[in-house]
Amino acid sequence: MTKPSIDNGSAIIEDDKNMYNLTNASTSSQPSPKLMRSDSTVSVPYLDLSKLMFAANDFDFGLNLNEVSTSTKQKINSLKLKSKERYNKTNLEFDKLQEILNQRLIKFDERIHKNLVSTNTEKLFYAISVFLIALSGFIIGKYPIYFPHFHTGIFVILMPIRFYQYFKQSFQYYLADLCYYVNLLLMLFIWVFPQSPTLFVSVFSLSLGTLSFAVITWRNSLVLHSIEKTTSSFIHIMPPMTMFVMVHELPSDYIKLHYPGISAINNWNFVSSLIITSIYYTIWQVSYHYFISIRKKDQIEKGKVTSFSYLKKKNKSTRLGKFVNGLPYLWMQTLAFTLIQFGYQLLTMMPCPIWFRYKYACGCFVIFIFIWASYNGATYYIDVFGKKFEKEVNKLKAEVYNLQQENEKLHSPENKPVNPKNDDIKPEPL
């Protein structure tokens, strides 16, 4: 290999001097001289640094290399503009997609709501409800081991409908009530923790206690054409019915194998059952007041309905309602309502040892609750639909009477009858 000559070395030194002069020139804001390639055979080409300093403001290490060429600035601005246009275009496409999705959801919601309230749907639901009542009796008598599965199947179908209806009507805070909590505990006992005796005691006490008597206090009506009212009756009647079947109708060997939590209870301990159930009840009550009364306080003040606000308004004329509403602070009213509800829960649990020990007593009690809900449904049909039909008939009679009066006016214009007052109108029978 040929060694570089001294002249070549001098050329390299000259290039280094040029680099030093370049640095000083940039410092004094003078235009940089154009760098030339060395004549040395071992030297490397020097690049134009001004073309690489597009980020000089971010990477200025004391050399003041913040001079960017005009072409580079134009390229950067062009890149920014293109990126901004691409971003705006993406947002516009996303907004259009979101608008299309919202329109489809609105149409889907309208179709569901229309189907749920249509006459044909109510007729179909009435027929299905009658069939399911008959089928439940057949399963209890012939195949009681499948009744928990039957209950679960109906629960899975009705709960999404209930969630949809209540969220649409702004009644979603009702979904945090005790009845839904008990239904959830029952599902957990059947499918997740069948070996837990404490969970069984709580579910049995709350189902045959608070839920059963709620049919009386809340006037649950078995209106078979109404999905909403039938679902409410299902939530309160089916858990005690399922508990009756699981405790008194299933074979003992089957209970030991599939529901050991039931077989672990030989004798019902009244005190321990109250304590265990009260613990489960307290978990629900504390969670309810934290997530609903405290976390959703602003929404409630804006008009969202809860069980507490509904009962305050409904029972404001009763002695108990006047007492609760007369308390000076809201926290006092809430505390009073909580204590009253807890006392009601303890009171309804008192007969549970009888329901657990005596099959026929428990069966008669469940039948009584079912008959009460059916009676409320019959009252609804007669009072609501009967009064509505009576109003329509009276309206039709008034229209016929007015037509008769107008007809008389046309045929005898000289003898115009005096129009009687509305209170004196006595429609003739059809």
Automatic annotation (TrEMBL):
Residues 405-430 are annotated as: Disordered. Keywords: Acyltransferase, Lipid biosynthesis, Lipid metabolism, Membrane, Phospholipid biosynthesis, Phospholipid metabolism, Transferase, Transmembrane, Transmembrane helix. It is a multi-pass membrane protein. GO terms for molecular function: acyltransferase activity. It comes from the Eukaryota. The chain crosses the membrane at residues 124-140, 146-164, 171-193, 199-218, 230-248, 268-292, 323-346, 358-382. It is found in: Membrane. Residues 421-430 have a biased composition (Basic and acidic residues). InterPro entries: GPCAT. GO terms for cellular component: membrane. The keyword Acetylation does not apply. One of its GO terms (biological process) is phosphatidylcholine biosynthetic process. Belongs to the GPC1 family. This is Glycerophosphocholine acyltransferase 1. It comes from Candida verbasci.
